Amino acid sequence: MSNRIRISGNQKKLAFVLAVVFILLGWQTAAWILPDFLMPDVATVIMRLVQEVQSASFLQGLRDSLLRLGAGYGVALVFGIGFGLIGAVQFFFRAVLKSAIIILQSIPSICWVPLLLIVMGFGSTPIIVVVAIAAFFPAALSVMNATESVQHVHVSAARVMGASRWDMLKRVYLPAVMPELITGAQLAFGNAWRALISAEMLIGFGKGLGRSLSYAGETADMVGVMTNILAIAILAPLIDQLLLENLRHRVLRYQYV
């Protein structure tokens, strides 16, 4: 029997609510201490966010950001999971890929922006590539690390039964790494989200949450700055919980029930 302490669903919800309360309390305390033009209070920002959500410009920027996120994140998952699984049956390939990731992931993804702007020009493409670079590393590493923990007895049994490399990937490695794969996808999403906002702020192309935040800072609109920060803070856990966490529960239920 495992000695691991598990937290119930209600306790997780309570912990999340308490975390939100503490953050808002710290924000409001800062608003009481600092002048209004430096730190607007919580109520003012929430009212501004409600107004922005009803505006076509905000919704267009949100749509553009989500499209860039979906494109970059999707590409990263396809290549990250694909390369990670190939590394399960091609040991030399795995060693080379792991070494390359160790070297490249030390470079913040935003550092690639100047090069990508020169090569690709202004537009959504360099932002999508930055998002993909940021999300690729945790996705690939999680799969490769998980494949290394697959029990050798299962691999040996599959080989004795005449399984091809494709059969090994499909019937042995993929089911075994699925929980870690979902965890890696969640880590990749966090990287992708931060890279998206940073790239939009730096590149300043078109519309998007990062671009709106950057513009509000340039015009000294602190209410706008905090409004965009609040929107970014709300959307990230919302996407993670509604999509990735639900997918995780479904996968784990299929694996263990």
Automatic annotation (TrEMBL):
Residues annotated as transmembrane: 71-97, 109-137, 222-244
UniProt main location, coarse: membrane
Residues covered by the ABC transmembrane type-1 domain: 62-244
Biological process annotations from GO: transmembrane transport
Cellular component terms per the entry's GO annotation: plasma membrane
Membrane disposition: Multi-pass membrane protein
Keyword Membrane appears in the UniProt entry: yes
UniProt keyword Transit peptide, yes or no: no
Keywords: Cell membrane, Membrane, Transmembrane, Transmembrane helix, Transport
Location(s), subcellular: Cell membrane
One Pfam family, short name: BPD_transp_1
Family under the similarity heading: Belongs to the binding-protein-dependent transport system permease family.
Name of the featured protein: ABC transporter permease subunit
